[in-house]
Design a protein that fits this description.
105 residues; alpha+beta; GMP Synthetase, Chain A, domain 3; three-stranded mixed beta sheet; 4 helices; 3 strands
């Protein structure tokens, strides 16, 4: 199972989301193609209701503790309640281009 599938499986179990997208954005960064190191998570769940952003992110970080300790370099999190998701028209922001260093550095 690849890292994207593992992330999806763990977040499905932890959040019971009504919408979950895991996007491997590794190709947008200066790392080997197969690094599986940069991900964007869009999670919509009632588990986020009444929680500030930091607590929402902690829920995800807890569920993905092993992956964060073993190879994930970046994790962009977009966490919303169902109401917030529908208010935004079911859209999450696009990720900006990588501004980091290159493989040669």
């Amino acid at each position: 199972m690849n890292r994207k599938d593992i992330i999806e499986q763990k977040l499905q179990a932890a959040l019971l989301p009504i919408h979950l997208e895991i996007v491997d954005e590794t190709h947008m960064h200066s790392v080997p193609e197969d690094a599986q190191s940069h991900f964007k998570v869009i999670a919509v769940s009632t588990a986020f209701e009444g929680k500030p952003l930091v607590q929402r992110h902690r829920l995800i970080n807890k569920a993905l503790a092993e992956e964060l300790a073993d190879g994930i370099h970046a994790l962009a999190l977009h966490t919303m309640t169902p109401e917030e998701w529908f208010d935004k028209g079911g859209q999450a922001p696009q990720s900006p281009p990588c501004l980091g260093g290159g493989k040669e550095q």
